[in-house]
Amino acid sequence: MPILETIGLEKRFGGIAAAHDISLAIEKGARHALIGPNGAGKTTVINLLTGVLRPTSGRILLAGNDITALLPHQRVRLGMARTFQINQLFLELSPLETIGLAVAERLGLGNDWWRLMGGKAVLAREIAEVLERFRLADVMHERTAILPYGKQRLLEIALAFACRPQVLLLDEPAAGVPEAERQELLATIEALPEEVTVLLIEHDMDLVFSFADHVSVLVNGGLLGDGGPEEVARDPRVKAVYLGEQLDA
Amino acid sequence: MTAMPAVADEVAAYLARRARWSPLEVAFWVFVFATIWLFPGQYLIMKDTAILALFALSLDLILGYAGVISLGQAAFFGLAGYFAGLVAKYGLINEPVIALICSGLVAAALGFVTSFLVLRGSDLTRLMVTLGVSLMLGELANRYSNITGGADGLQGVTIAPVLGLFGFDLYGHNGYVYCLIVLFVCFLLARRIVYSPFGLSLRSLKGNALRASAVGIPVERRLVAIYTISAAFAGIAGALLTQTTAFCSLDVFSLDRSADLLLVLIIGGTGYLYGGLIGALIYKFLQDWIASLTPQYWQFWIGLMLVVIVLVGRERVEGWARAARVAIGRLGARVVSRPAAVGAPPDGR
Amino acid sequence: MLTILFDGIAYGMLLFVLACGLSVTLGLMNFINLAHGAFAMAGGYCTVILVNRIGVPFALGLPLAFVVTAALGALFERTLYVHVYARSPLDQVLFTMGLVFMSVAAVDYVMGSSQQFVIIPKALQGQFIVFGVGMSKYRLLIILICGLLTLALQLIVAKTRFGSRLRAAVDDQRVARGLGINVGAVFAVTFAFGSGLAGLGGALGAEILGLDPTFPLKYMIYFLIVVTVGGTSSITGPFLASILLGIADVAGKYYVPRLGAFVIYTIMIVVLILRPQGLFARNLAR
Fold it and tell me: Which of A179, A214, B18, C145 is disulfide-compatible with A32, CB 3.0–4.6 A?
């Protein structure tokens, strides 16, 4: 059973279909990339998956459960987390507090207004784990607003990871990251645990081909190609779309 | 992959440390309670300051921590104030402490019911809606003057002695002690809330509500919760006023009160719990001083202060205030050689 | 009942003239001017001084109220408001509230706290009886003047060049600037005009609404309701909202006196929940 499945997902804004007939089946542990030219609707798909947008029609199944009607925070609890193309961080909090937020929420402590945060040892352990994995331990007390962009991007992913999702949706994780900090970022993404399924939206073809075992191509809101990276790279329709775009640009 | 013990230890140490009472905090409260004996002739104004501090604390909880702008705290203040007066007047609840708690609950109920109004809409909408509710209650109180006493205020309120032992007298000694204790208890509660996981999630709502929900935080539910809690605090402040003055009038709902509150928080700063208290102290001191110069037109000077602060730039003024607090905090820390002080809020700002 | 309708319409149109300046300012500059009522008060007191104390005829006192208040508005706009346009809503609220407090205290100091009445010429006192319906002459005048003003406003906005510049600036400031429209000048003129209208409304309304130093505080919520319910992207929106509120308020106070004012507050809150951009506004994403 695929861990994440969409059936005929569609989103219309007035007369325009930002996404139509999106049917994906992603297996557990997969590294699935979603590529496509600008404006193809990739972020729309992620917004539909995470519940930020309501689909006009179609269904979304997470581990077999129909989550189409669930609110974003409910989907997170069921194991789906995402990152944003443009960092959405808590600028006034430190990485420690930011990760602490997510971990506390996941451990079900979010409603606890009486217990002081220092009370639970498992909290500290988990926060430390995430900080280390994402190489944020050295900046854990700094205010997020003053962190270098690369570290912020790592924090962006770390925050989603701290929710211990079954499915992690990464929206252009490498976007805007300066060359010097890219390697760290890419290595961190490579090192994500096998149990976590990753759906990656990317423009960077190097990252896609080195990381993904499965690629879907989205053009004008519809799925064009679907398969292993080499297959998709050889597909003449895909080439036309990308080359065509380059000619126009 | 387990973390190196050093990192885990550091995280644990930080979490444990952040909620610890700093010496400056302890000194602050020692001083506050010492005023009972230090300034025996000033009970009335000190009592007013304590009530204002609690009221400001209630706004700080939603404004400073959850980022909700509200001009309507007066609604809870006034509702609880009238409730406390009415139950005392008609002998429904004679023990003031119980009446106080019930008034807080009544205000909390109103907060809960109106919380959905502040969930959606822009800041502008929130301002107007909260203002509207507060003015509306004032209008209601005016209409039902046979119950509330209308413009004359609620007459004939007599408050029984607290716990049957401590009566409220003209000099205000017992009233002041009562208010201080209530303020302290509420403060402890707020402090607990703020340093809990719940409290941390509130700050995420203020920072980035979109990301908060993307991390699994039920944004609306948290906002409703803190708004209700804040309403309870505001209500307790209002009930305190009625109980210690044996009187309640329409001006508890006035725009003045909500405006003064914002001014107090601007002066004192938001987001670190002591802003309301320190702001109230400074504000009352200013008011007393200016009132001695021009008794009738205090409102003019408040207005002028607001205008000047905004023109100068609220962030700049808050920045100065923050810098002053940090400086005092560092001074305090050097005196007692301990790392974190009350002047620096938990996020190390 | 028709009298109530008549009174309600008069009240509503008065509200409109008072509030439309606020609506345009909010729609145009996204600026919450809670001190709008202070300009209305200024106009009222101006007329009181002119007509009662100096003996200027009523017919002249009204336009003078407009002119003086418009000038006041222009002055304040250029010297004070212009610094606060870009600020957060909270800052704007604090600023304008500060102005309100200052104006209320200042007027109290200068003119005293008792209610003032404008001496109305004999010709306007009393009422006509038309088909058994009593219509107060003064209210008839209000309907006439306000009606004409509304038509004039609608014409200006819809037909003149200034009007089209105004509409452009309301719709999208940046694009308007890019087209060469002097948005700052549009602001200044509009603000002055809106304040002048408020002043005129205050002068006209002194008889019906009562004029004392607390006027801005008392009526602020009414203006806010008009703007909330009517939206800020048209003239007709606030107009219809004012009429609706005027009738609801008068009828409410007559039929259900206990809850009279309650009715309009409830309408405001319901509208704010259901349609945050106002009942009559176009669907703008603001």
Answer: A214
Q: Is the pLDDT of residue A104 over 70?
A: yes
DSSP state string for A98-124 = HHHHHHHHHTT-TT--SS-GGG-HHHH
pLDDT given for residue B296 in this prediction: 74
Identify the pLDDT of residue B333.
Answer: 64
B136 — contact with chain C (CB < 8 Å)?
yes
Query: What crossing angle do the helices spanning C161-171 and C2-29 adopt, rounded to 10°?
Result: 70
Confidence class for position B290, pLDDT limits 50, 70, 90: confident
In 3D space, the residue among B33, B49, B51, B42 whose CA is nearest the CA of residue B240 turns out to be B51
Nearest CA-CA distance, residue B215 and chain A, Å: 6
Which domains, ranges and CATH numbers included, belong to chain B?
Answer: 38-293 (1.10.3470)
User: How distant is the Cα of A237 from the closest Cα of chain B, in angstroms?
Assistant: 35
**Is B21 at the interface with chain A, CB within 8 A?**
no
The DSSP 8-state label assigned to residue B154 in this structure reads B
φ/ψ of B277, rounded to 5, equals -70, -50
- Note whether C264 contacts B: Cβ–Cβ < 8 A: no
Two tokens, residue A27? 């297996």
Burial of B38 (0-12, 13-18, 19+ CB in 10 A): exposed
Question: Residue B128's pLDDT band (boundaries 50, 70, 90)?
Answer: confident
Q: Token pair 């987001």 is at which residue?
A: B271
**What CA–CA distance (Å, rounded) separates B178 from B234?**
16
No. of H helices and E strands in chain A? 9, 11
Contact criterion met (CB < 8 Å) for C83 and B311: yes
**Residue of B16, B195, B214 with shortest CB distance to A76:** B214
Q: What is the pLDDT of residue B342?
A: 42
Q: Which helix (H) or strand (E) holds C133?
A: strand C133-136
Assess whether pLDDT exceeds 80 at residue C147.
Answer: yes
Q: How many domains does chain C have?
A: 1
Return mean pLDDT, chain B. 84
For residues C196 and C70, the answer to whether their CB atoms sit within 8 Å is: yes
Instruction: At B296, give phi and psi (nearest 5°).
Output: -90, -30
| Tens digit of each residue's pLDDT (9 = 90 or more) over B36-85 | 888 888 888 899 999 999 999 999 999 888 888 888 899 999 999 999 99
pLDDT of B57: 96
Spatial distance between the Cα atoms of C224 and B229, rounded to a whole number of angstroms: 28
Compare all CA atoms of chain C with the CA of B130 and give the residue at the minimum distance. C269
**pTM of the predicted structure, to 2 decimals:** 0.84
Is the separation of the CB atoms in C32 and C88 below 8 Å?
no
ipTM: 0.86
Q: Write the pLDDT tens digit of every residue in C9-21.
A: 888 888 898 888 8
- pLDDT single digits (tens) A200-220: 998 777 788 888 889 988 888
Subunit contact B347:A94, Cβ cutoff 8 A = yes
CB within 8 Å: A116 and B203: no
Minimum Cα–Cα distance from B306: chain C residue: C98
Strand partners, A198: A31, A168
- Domain with C207, as residue range(s), is 2-213
In a domain, C48, yes or no: yes
Max CA distance (Å), chain B: 71
